[in-house]
Write a structure and sequence with these properties.
five-stranded mixed beta sheet, 3 helices, globular, 11 strands, 170 residues
């Protein structure tokens, strides 16, 4: 029995990222967190909620809160347009996992990303909270901020913000 002296190359694994637009900026999110993308139709507004909580939708019988991602990131309120959509994300911080809708200006595409294409988050200059950034994605000639949705949609923090609004009547 002879053994081969050559080594077997490990397959290169890629991860998929959904890219989206908020205003004039490009962001990315691991596709593993995305459950579906739906066309924006309408929301039911809830009184006394923070501005970034735009309302709720009925998703096949389930009430799903919808956050304005631009407002959550400290940007201007999303203006509803023809490409506006809601990305349904599953947040595993609760049992059972919580579905949350994220309002974005547009969903662009899904990218296959090699591990080396994502760089660590910068220490400065991103104009959003550092804990909201998972890294920086370099793809072709563009750069996209990869969002850490575990932090952006931290249920404890969101519940605290909702509670503050209810207490102050804002």
């Amino acid at each position: 029995m002879s053994q081969s002296s050559g080594s077997v190359a490990e397959p290169i694994t890629t991860e998929q990222y959904l890219t989206m637009t908020l205003g004039h900026e490009q962001f990315a999110l691991s596709i593993a967190q995305v459950r579906e993308i739906i066309e924006f139709s309408s929301l039911t507004e809830i009184p006394l909620m923070p501005d970034f909580l735009r309302g709720v939708i009925n998703l096949r019988g389930a009430v799903v809160p919808v956050l304005d991602l631009a407002l959550r990131l400290g940007r201007e309120r999303t203006q509803i347009g023809r490409r506006t959509c809601i990305v349904i994300v599953e947040v595993d911080q609760a049992e059972p996992p919580q579905l949350i809708g994220v309002l974005v200006d547009a969903v662009n595409d899904v990218l296959d990303v090699l591990p080396g294409q994502i760089e660590p988050r910068p220490g400065f200059g991103a104009r959003i909270r550092a804990d909201f950034i998972a890294g920086i994605l370099r793809h072709q000639e563009s750069i996209r901020v990869v969002l850490d949705f575990t932090q952006v949609l931290a249920l404890d923090e969101l519940a605290g913000l909702v509670g503050q609004c209810a207490e102050t009547g804002v």
